[in-house]
């Protein structure tokens, strides 16, 4: 079978993944109040510039899922290029309509493409890892149904936790009142949020000190170690806060955590919700070991 793997742009795909001829991406976008559009990209300089603008923007831009014509064009291209099997890994269906949109388009191609649309129940490097794993499994000779089953397992077993630096960005997005955000910032309270098993975003805890936050990071990783042994990669994604993400990495290393790390930006679409300074930790299980993922 000739297999393609598609993700949406919030996956922050690595250079290694982007270079794979069987890998494709659907772009989300953002619209600022001034009328200009940002395409969701994974270029570091573009993302840095976006976060600088976001810091000073009076209201957050509106995010948009991939346009339907973009999805149709890509499926037409895959048919023309001789693909017969497609895996599409999307941002959590609980927080985005991308999953449903791709399902709708895929139904129009069911006589030409065997399409598996997988709800990642997460975002960012979790999706990137799933895409890597799908391509590795296809190369290793797994059947389509086996790959789909393993990807569903990865979606269920992966974990994402994010600490928000400035609560005003949650307030701007309508998820908290301005008064609550102000009080929280004054008291130094930061919500540690996570993607629950159904892919919805929930509050895991509220932390006031770096010590208590780092204790959570360590416990999360130690729990994954007990569960997966050495077959996982740690992701650290940030909202233009590389220094803070690296500090978490070095703390974990000092605590004896000797695992590969994948570090990089949260794309603009994700940054709208987490804001500048957000830092996320992800647990990415591996079906086929792929520690090169952490080297990009």
Q: Care to describe what's here?
A:
It comes from Eremococcus coleocola ACS-139-V-Col8. Keywords: Lipid-binding. May bind long-chain fatty acids, such as palmitate, and may play a role in lipid transport or fatty acid metabolism. It holds the Pfam family DegV. This is EDD domain protein, DegV family. This protein is of the alpha/beta class and 296 residues long. The chain folds into 2 domains: 3-26 and 65-156, Dihydroxyacetone kinase, domain 1 (Rossmann fold); 159-295, Hypothetical Protein Tm841, Chain: A,domain 3 (2-Layer Sandwich). Helices cover 42% and strands 23% of the residues. The protein has helices at 15-18, 44-56, 68-80, 98-107, 125-139, 144-157, 168-172, 178-187, 210-228, 242-254, 268-274, and strands at 3-8, 23-26, 29-31, 37-39, 62-64, 85-90, 114-119, 159-163, 190-195, 201-207, 232-238, 261-265, 279-285. The strands form 3 sheets. The chain has a 6-stranded mixed β-sheet, with helices on both faces. A hairpin with a 5-residue loop joins β3 (29-31) and β4 (37-39). Residues 172-187 have low confidence and may be disordered.
Q: Major sheet: size, sense and barrel closure?
A: 6 strands, mixed
- What fraction of the residues are assigned to beta strands by DSSP? 15-25%
Count of folded domains:
2
Question: How many helical stretches?
Answer: 11
The dominant shape is: globular
> Quaternary status of these chains?
single chain
Q: In the CATH classification, which architecture of the largest domain applies? A: 2-Layer Sandwich
Helix content: 40-55%
Strand order of the largest sheet: 10-9-8-13-11-12
In sequence order, what are the helices and strands, one letter per element?
EHEEEHEHEHEHHEHHEEHEHEHE
Which stretches are poorly predicted, pLDDT < 50 over at least 5 residues? 172-187
Q: Please state the CA-atom Rg, rounded to the nearest Å.
A: 19 Å
Terminal Cα span: 29 Å
CATH fold category name of the largest domain: Hypothetical Protein Tm841, Chain: A,domain 3
Q: Which class do the helix and strand fractions yield?
A: alpha/beta
Kindly state the number of beta strands.
13
């Amino acid at each position: 079978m000739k297999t393609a793997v598609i993700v949406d742009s919030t996956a922050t795909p690595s250079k290694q993944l982007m270079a794979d001829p069987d890998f494709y991406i659907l772009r989300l976008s953002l619209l600022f109040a001034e009328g200009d559009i940002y395409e969701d990209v994974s270029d570091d300089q573009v993302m840095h510039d976006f976060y600088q603008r976001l810091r000073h923007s009076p209201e957050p831009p509106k995010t948009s899922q991939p346009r339907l014509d973009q999805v149709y064009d890509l499926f037409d291209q895959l048919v023309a290029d001789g693909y017969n099997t497609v895996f599409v890994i999307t941002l959590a269906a609980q927080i985005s309509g991308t999953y449903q949109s791709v399902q709708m388009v895929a139904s129009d191609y069911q006589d030409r493409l065997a399409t598996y649309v997988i709800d990642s129940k997460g975002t960012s490097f979790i999706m990137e890892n799933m895409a890597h794993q799908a391509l590795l499994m296809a190369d290793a000779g797994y059947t389509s149904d086996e790959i789909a089953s393993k990807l569903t397992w990865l979606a269920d077993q992966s974990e994402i936790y994010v600490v928000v630096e400035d609560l005003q960005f949650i307030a701007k997005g309508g998820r908290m009142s301005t008064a609550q955000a102000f009080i929280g910032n004054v008291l130094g309270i930061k919500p540690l949020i996570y993607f629950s098993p159904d892919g919805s975003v929930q509050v895991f805890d509220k932390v006031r000190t770096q010590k208590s936050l780092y204790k959570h990071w360590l416990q999360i990783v130690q729990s994954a170690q007990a569960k997966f042994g050495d077959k996982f990669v740690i992701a650290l994604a940030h909202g233009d806060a590389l220094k803070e993400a690296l500090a978490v990495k070095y703390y974990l290393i000092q605590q004896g955590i000797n695992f590969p790390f994948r570090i990089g930006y949260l794309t603009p679409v994700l940054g709208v919700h987490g804001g500048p300074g957000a830092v996320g930790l992800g647990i990415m299980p591996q079906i086929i070991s792929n520690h090169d993922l952490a080297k990009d």
